[in-house]
Amino acid sequence: MACGGGASAMRQRWTAGVFTVGDDTTPQFIPVSEPMRLAEVEQISASMEVVSRTSNLEVRPAVRFSFDGVTWLTEASLGTYESSTGWSYNELTSIEDAGGEYCQVGLQAKNVSATSDIAKGVVVLQVEVRRP
């Protein structure tokens, strides 16, 4: 929650195992945060380390939106897909004009191969949420 007259920030870090369905190249959203009221979020910055992965996995930080915090409507990228291990850093992204009442931070993972092999990996996601 915001304190006083200035903006405040919340920083969190998660380690997540990610995977996709075998031959489905559609991005899968993997939530890592609790739903947050959109009125309490102004901008989000994400840093991500892909610790390990199979060769067919691409992953990026993302956020999704909802009117009730249960049924999720749309997703938005917080960065570009990464296809190698290592750190990537993303600028602050303004989400104050996004539709809905709630947002949730997570990862979008996709299998870049149309084979039946499951794409999987381990990702560390660090997020800074700036509040109004």
Provide structural commentary.
This protein is 0% helix and 55% strand. 26% of the residues are buried. It has 132 residues and is mostly beta strands. The radius of gyration is 15 Å and the shape is globular. Strand 5 and strand 6 form a beta hairpin. The chain has a single domain, classed as Jelly Rolls, CATH 2.60.120. The strands form two sheets. Strands 1, 4, 7, 8 and 10 form a five-stranded antiparallel sheet that branches. Strands 2, 3, 5, 6 and 9 form a five-stranded antiparallel sheet that branches.
How many domains? The number is 1
The end-to-end distance, rounded to whole angstroms, is: 9 Å
Structural class: mainly beta
Seen as an oligomer or otherwise, the chain set is: single chain
**Which bin fits the share of residues in helices?**
under 10%
List segments where confidence is low: pLDDT < 50 over at least 5 consecutive residues: 1-5
Shape: globular
The count of β-strands is: 10
Order of helices and strands: EEEEEEEEEE
Second-tier CATH architecture: Sandwich
Secondary-structure map:
Elements: E1 8-19, E2 28-31, E3 36-37, E4 43-53, E5 57-66, E6 72-77, E7 86-89, E8 93-94, E9 102-111, E10 120-131
Antiparallel strand pairs: 1-10, 2-9, 3-9, 4-7, 4-8, 4-10, 5-6, 5-9
Main features:
mainly beta, 10 strands, five-stranded antiparallel β-sheet, disordered N terminus, Jelly Rolls, 132 residues, 0% helix
Quick overview of this protein structure:
The chain has 132 residues and is an all-beta fold. Helix content is 0%, strand content 55%. A hairpin with a 5-residue loop joins β5 and β6.
